[in-house]
Write a structure and sequence with these properties.
The chain is an alpha/beta fold and 231 residues long. It contains 7 helices and 16 strands.
Length: 231
């Protein structure tokens, strides 16, 4: 399994026979590795979207159309995009699972908000979500934008993810300390990867607090945007 950070909350996850792009915000993303753009998208098989905010979806319909990729996510947002952009979408909802080849993707709850920007204000985009992605005999939790929740213990019981990709920038989501609480008290991760930080000044700039708070034996990976690590 391989993880590549696309900057902010963008992820390239190579798992099983799939190459998934999760919230691949490029347009206006100051952290997107533009010098490695083709490598970031090479071989991609599908796009997953956690919610509708611009720092997750700006440019995604155009990317999907240009690359011929299907987009998976919350049913309301997928229906809106299918009608407006004429792209292939697959809408599902929390608790639902879709299979892509050898990989099973379960949508789970998040606590945040979800909307698109419109000329007269925000446009309803369904609700926010995270994902449990299972393949290669393992499972990965991708938090999307969220605060820590008691629900997380249920997902650990049901799915036993050994990798946690956790928003940890604070202000709009849980911060490093709260992400560490989720990772150590509610999950039994072997590997934790923080994301949704560094992008803007009001977000946390360092993962040191997360690293310091983790239990012994838990690996924290902190790659730079564009770097690929084996998980």
């Amino acid at each position: 399994m391989k993880y590549t950070w696309l900057g902010h909350a963008g992820v390239r996850l190579e798992i099983g026979d799939q190459v998934l792009l999760i919230d691949p915000w490029e347009t206006g993303n100051p952290m997107f590795p533009t010098d490695r753009r083709e490598a970031m998208y090479a071989g991609a098989t599908a796009i997953l979207i956690t919610h509708g905010h611009g720092d997750h979806v700006s440019g995604v319909p155009e990317l999907a159309k240009a690359r011929g990729l299907a987009v998976y996510g919350m049913v309301e947002l997928m229906g809106f995009w299918a009608a407006r952009h004429a792209i292939q979408t697959h809408g599902f909802n929390k608790g639902g699972t879709v299979r892509l080849g050898d990989v099973a993707i379960t949508m789970v709850n998040a606590t945040h908000s979800s909307s698109l920007s419109g000329p007269e204000g925000p446009i309803f985009a369904g609700s926010e979500a995270g994902y449990i992605i299972a393949g290669e005999g393992r499972a990965v939790y991708v938090s999307g934008d969220t605060d820590v929740m008691a629900d997380m213990k249920i997902w650990d019981d049901l799915h036993s993810p050994d990798v946690g990709i956790l928003c940890a920038g604070g202000h709009y989501t849980m911060d490093m300390t709260r992400a560490a609480y989720a990772a150590s008290k509610l999950f039994r991760f072997k590997t934790v990867i923080p994301y949704h930080y560094k992008t803007f000044a009001l977000l946390e700039q360092s993962a040191d607090a997360l690293k310091a708070a983790m239990l012994p034996g838990v690996r924290v990976l902190d790659p730079e945007p564009g770097d690929t690590v084996t998980v």
